[in-house]
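Appendix B, example 12.
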Amino acid sequence: MENDNTEKRCQGCGVVLQDQNVLQEGYTTNLENDICQRCFRMKNYGEYQVVAKSNDEYIDILKEVGKTKDLVLYITDLLNLEKNIEQIRTIIPNKMILVLNKMDVLPKSVKEEKLKAYLEGMNIHFEEIIVISTAKNYNIDYLLKRIKYFQTSKNVYVVGHTNAGKSSLINKLIKNYSENTQELTMSPLPSTTLSTIQIDINEHLTLIDTPGLVDTGSILNHVDPKMVKKISPKAEIKPRTFQLKKNQSIVIEDLIRIDYVEGDKNSFTLFVSNDLKVKRLLNIFHNENLKDKNKITYNVKYDEDLVISGLGFVKIVNKGVIDIYIDKDVDTFMRRSLI
């Protein structure tokens, strides 16, 4: 799994650097540079160049990780927990710490122990579940301590979906505990890291960043970069609660419409970025907003979340029936309430 030392790789995204073709991955104007032009423009100008990659390539990389005996950190975003979080165990059998990132974007009233208990209730084997915030430097010291405890060699792999915060965590570990000046490219957009990248933290620990698995059903893959930034929370979420009666509706930007079509008065609490505009429609029959999008009907049980992949979730207290209208390529699902 180690990179070929004869090839110089971009320290930002891991691709092999080349100065021959401006249209291909890894282009740089000078091979003396440490990062490719794509990473340079992302870091300095916030410009993002889409790179189409299939998950098959990334899964092949993860299967190679699974052939090692090394410790793995599986990073996931608390606001966007994957529907099939157990899938990683079918690919990687190694010792694994589940790292629940972005605690800082959830309301302060949410207790860490409750989040850990929720994941422990899924009966997926992890050596430990650790809640962190790279933005607030929360539990990073403890995570490093547990990495030292569980690691089987110098190498520790970092895996997870795009935008879970893998690169942010590695950059934080570099800053806190290493004299290494390397910095990984960070972006809320998919396919930022393109190949494995080795980062020496100290003589006892080398982190190996892997490309993020692309959640093709994430809303982030189906909106423009400006909306991606709006969807990605930059501060603690202020939950917005609406008391809906039958035949009333909630609309989030032009992204999703939620119609409450059957049931007694119900509470809908939105855990989405504060930057997103939300409005309530008092009568679903008098407004055609977003009705041209794909319609899905859910029978909601007591205390369930409607999860919109990449956007966040809506906590619904009572049972009822909802119709949602959303882009046909965006995944949604119901789960028992996280909070």
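The chain is about 20% helix and 25% strand. The chain has two domains: 37-215, 240-336.
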